[in-house]
Specification:
By secondary structure, the protein is mainly β. The chain is built from 3 helices and 16 strands.
Length: 236
């Protein structure tokens, strides 16, 4: 008799089980339905969030789902438009000149200090506006050494353009500043810098470019320069 019972148990154990299991409930509604608290004694830390998902509970059904961490960031009200970049070396001007003497500085997404790389296009060095609204923008350019005072008086400066529309679109110079030179007697050099800080209204899909305005600038004058910018949405 015992042999028959054991044989029956083993036979049942070998069958696949598809039933729902409930803990503290007689009517489970999922593969595992726990009506109570959950305690985990040990949770190993993750060195990075890459390739990981978090667990979140549906407030209505109490069901647990795997969730992309970026969705939590977006839901928390984090400003996903924030972007900043700084270029200390390798500054050059893109060969594609727009609006006469304006040429974009060759910023790269890899030079960002904060923000999503997806917001920036390396090919034409543009930041793409993610959603319509008012944005705070700051753009600074400083010559370390090598520029002549005579060049400063010719309208040399920095500018910000906005390109709107599909394809090539329509490009507009939305702001510009000229340089102010200071002669250093000891070094016999001229250091010049200029900064733009203001608020601008943009439409989703607008491309913003940070560049240089001057017909006579040469790349050799850019070797010791520093350029940086930041941009973020402040209002709808």
């Amino acid at each position: 008799m015992k042999t028959k019972i054991y044989s029956l148990i083993f036979a049942c154990a070998s069958l696949p089980l598809f039933s729902q299991v409930g803990i503290n409930t007689d009517t489970p509604t999922a593969t595992l339905d726990v009506n109570g608290t959950l305690r985990v004694r040990v949770t190993p830390p993750a060195a990075t969030v890459t390739g990981y998902q978090v667990l979140a509970q549906d407030a209505a059904t109490t069901e647990v789902f795997a969730l992309d961490p970026q969705l939590l960031i977006a839901a928390s009200g984090t400003n996903t438009s924030v972007y900043a970049a700084k270029k200390n070396t390798g500054i050059s001007l893109l060969s594609v000149g727009v609006l006469g003497d304006f040429k974009p500085v060759n910023f790269l997404a890899a030079e960002r200090s904060i923000g999503s790389a997806a917001l920036f296009n390396d090919t034409n060095s543009t930041y793409t506006i993610p959603s319509t609204g008012v944005y705070a923008v700051s753009y600074s350019f400083r010559f370390g050494t090598g520029i002549q005072a005579s060049l400063l008086s010719s309208g040399t400066g920095i500018g910000i353009t906005r390109t709107r529309g599909a394809g090539a679109g329509v490009t507009t110079l939305i702001d510009s500043r000229t340089f102010n030179g200071v002669n250093l007697v000891v070094a016999n050099l001229t250091i010049s810098d200029s900064t733009i800080n203001s608020l601008y209204s943009f439409q989703a899909g607008d491309r913003v470019t940070f560049g240089f305005i001057d017909p006579g600038i040469t790349l050799t004058l850019l070797s010791t320069s520093v350029a940086s910018f930041y941009i973020y949405k402040v209002s709808n």
